Structures are given as structure tokens and as C-alpha cells.
Amino acid sequence: MAEALEVLLNRRSVRDFTQEKIAKDVLDRIVDAGLHAATAMNRQSWYLTVVTDSRLLAELSNAVANVLVDSGVPSLVERGRSKDFSTFHHAPAVIFVSSDGSHYSLADCANASQNMCLAAAALGLGSCYIGSFVQAFDHPKGRPLRDRFDLPEGYDPVFAIAIGHPSEPASVLGPKQPERKVAYID
Predict the structure, then answer these.
(1) Containing structural domain, residue 21
(2) Model confidence over 160-182: pLDDT tens digits?
(3) Are 173 and 9 in contact (CB under 8 A)?
(4) How far is CA 126 from CA 164, 171, 180, in A?
(5) What is the largest CA-CA distance in the chain?
(6) Is residue 174 part of a domain?
(7) What is the tens place of the pLDDT at every residue in 121-159?
(8) What is the CATH number of the domain that holds 17?
(9) Could you give the number of structural domains in the chain?
(10) Residue 186 domain-assigned (yes or no)
């Protein structure tokens, strides 16, 4: 397994995946990393739903496309009407992270999501952290899809992690500019 800092510094969001399936034991390892994320007061205020059903992912993506088209914003309408549109970037597996709505739950869910993205990278896979799918559940065509998640009472999806084999190697980003984003107070 790659060195922890190497994984942290080199992980990139992948937005184009092959259709190669991810083995269940590999998905289990990624999920386990999410379940081991730090949480406020150890509340573990998340619920994870692993979806590998390509039809359900396509239906969810279509619901997001409907929201984009209905927005009336020209750039979003164009994106939603694109024949190749996939809110999950055609990933063969997506892990949905749902929150119980408690005070620190969004942070807990974000921690779990980041752990899963890093685990995917450590295992040689790509991932993309997605929040834009949530709007589909408010659309008339998307509401019934939420029910298929069979979530515990009080939980709502907040993030999704698309996981798969990248279609091409990750690009190398230029150096970060920490002097514009970090202040030290001695």
C-alpha cells in the first residue's frame, strides 16, 4: 500500500471511469475506511449506501439532468441535455453518504467521504466526491428514487463518492500556493 502522505498529496478527482467492475472485497475495504473516520463525540452520524446497480445510477443521473434542464440556466440546460451526461462520471460504483441531520453530522459525513476517497487512491482506484446529485431527490422524477435507498428514519443523502478505474492516468497538478491560503501566528 502506498505511503499515507504520498496518497494524500497525489489523490485527484477522477471524472471519467472505465466500466470495469470493482470487486466486493475492495469496496468493503473502502467502506471500512469510511466507517473508521473521526466523528464528533464518536456519534458516527452517517449511513452508507453502496450502489453498483448501473440502472439505478443511470436513473439518478437522469433525474439530475432533469433538474439542470428545468433550471433554465443556459449552461446547465446544455449540460443536462448532453447525450453523455453522467453526474457520477460513469463510475461502476457509487457510495452514498447520508446524514442523520445532527449538529456535526455534515462534518462527520465529510470525514467519512474523504477517508473513502483516500482508501480508493491507496488501492489504485479513482474517486470523485459529489454533492450535486442531492438536488435530484427534490425533483418530481427523482423523489421515488430516494425511496429505493431504504434509509433509516431521519437520514438524508448529502454526498456521493464515485469509484472506479480511471479511463486515463491522473494529471499532475502544479504546485500549490500555500502563502495565499495559510497564516502562521507565533
Answers:
(1) 4-169
(2) 999 999 988 776 666 666 667 77
(3) no
(4) 5, 12, 28
(5) 55
(6) no
(7) 999 999 999 988 888 888 787 888 888 888 999 999 999
(8) 3.40.109.10
(9) 1
(10) no
